[in-house]
User: What shape does this take?
Amino acid sequence: MNTLKMVNLNDFFNLLETLKVTQKKEKTIKINKALNRILSQDIKSKYNIPRYDNSAMDGYALRLGFNEYKIKDITFAGDRKNLNINNNEAIKITTGAKIPNNAQAVIPKEHTKLIDNKLTLEISPNMNQCIKFKGEDYKSGTKILHSGTKLNAQNIALLASQGINKIKVKKKVKIIIFGSGNEIANINTKLNENQIYDINSYFIKSLFSDLNCKIKYGGILNDKEKTIQSKIQESLNKYDIVITSGGVSVGEKDYMHKVLANIKANVLLDSTNIKPGRPVIFSTKNDKFILSLPGNPIAAFIQCMLHLPFLIQKFNGSDDLYLKPMIAINKNDFKTTNNTSHIILGYYDNGEFLAYNNGKYQGAQIAPLLKSNAFAIINNKNIVKKDSKIKIILYTPYFFDKINNIFNE
Assistant: This one.
């Protein structure tokens, strides 16, 4: 196993972009279970939407150019009547009802007066007013959804409009996450004075569960090389991504480098030039991935945000791979240093970003992580001024179909 030197974030994103990932196979599911799943087929419209010319309002269908009209008939949504209309005739019509032949507009009933079956207009309607035309939204045979789309409520409504009940989607990415270290305790156990609970696993599992993945908590790995190696090898047979938290530095009991060498994993990087969160090991074994995170909560979160959303999207064959930044107004001055990328946690609300404690905290802290909902990447910039515009990324990942410059420089 050849370890690599520390990489900066530009090189890291270049590595991600060239990464080869075996896409997940597909399965057929009903659309009532399709929310947040990744579509694995193109969908074409089976029908015109609307299916026929219909009224957008309750009112009267008529031809233009007359002062008075005789009410000829009435038509409702769902009626199968094939009505015709002459010059000075009007047909009462409800929203969604089929437009009569020769009608040129629908005038809302509130702009009319009806006395003794004689209709007079209070305003002059325009040609095609209040008419929804056949195929105006979607024409039959046109592509309405493409493979790789993450299905939201609107997409599912569109599928329902076409009478499509079953679709092909990518199978969920299978992920297992372990805590590690004798100082880490499961939340079901009682702490001794030298232990802390496993925060990282629960936070990460909850954070990414809305993506097309299934994350299992694997428990705590104790500080024994053979145990760690056995668990990782066993997990690689069942899961697409194996995540460990802790044991990636060069301490006496940091076994991850040794374990990865023993299983002949291909280490793609073994640290990144960021603060906090420098220690990380990102490896492949056959077509599986091993993400060995630092143990400190903030550092683990940052490295997971940089790696995991991209990997999940890549496994799913999505076109939207890259974290999408938002523009916010920075609400306090803070300083960083050159020659490294600083990750600044903060709170985003109503277009404004407030850096936690002016960007001063340690990777082992918990409060900055839990009291924030976004972060900014500051690259080679010493001072970020109050009221300046800044790019931030929300904890809940949004994606973009292009590699996007997310640095603040």
